[in-house]
């Protein structure tokens, strides 16, 4: 699926998808759920989890 098609299917602009891909912004929880449904994956697959201890990244 193209970036344009993905943007259309989750009802956002292509530049917004580009910003997500570049790591400059993130999905809202609702858009992340919709994106996961479109991509047939788990919502957790769309994020990079960074462990923290007492507010500090490891």
Explain the layout of strands and helices.
Blueprint lengths: L2 H7 L4 H8 L7 H11 L12 E2 L2 E2 L1
Antiparallel strand pairs: 1-2
Helix pairs in contact: 1-2
Largest sheet, if any?
Answer: 2 strands, antiparallel
Beta-strand residue fraction: 5-15%
How far apart the termini lie comes to 35 Å
> Averaged pLDDT, please?
89
Describe this structure in words.
It is a single chain. The protein has 58 residues and is mainly α. It has one domain (3-50). Helix content is 45%, strand content 7%. It contains three helices and two strands, in the order αααββ. It has helices at 3-9, 14-21, 29-39, and strands spanning 52-53, 56-57. The chain has a two-stranded antiparallel sheet with strand order 1-2. A hairpin with a 2-residue loop joins strand 1 (52-53) and strand 2 (56-57). The longest helix is centred in the middle third of the chain and has 11 residues, at 29-39.
């Amino acid at each position: 699926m193209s970036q344009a098609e993905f943007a259309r299917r989750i009802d956002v602009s292509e530049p917004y998808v580009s910003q997500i891909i570049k790591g400059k912004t993130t999905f809202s929880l609702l858009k992340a759920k919709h994106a996961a449904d479109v991509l047939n994956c788990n919502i957790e697959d769309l994020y990079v989890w960074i462990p923290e201890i007492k507010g500090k990244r490891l």
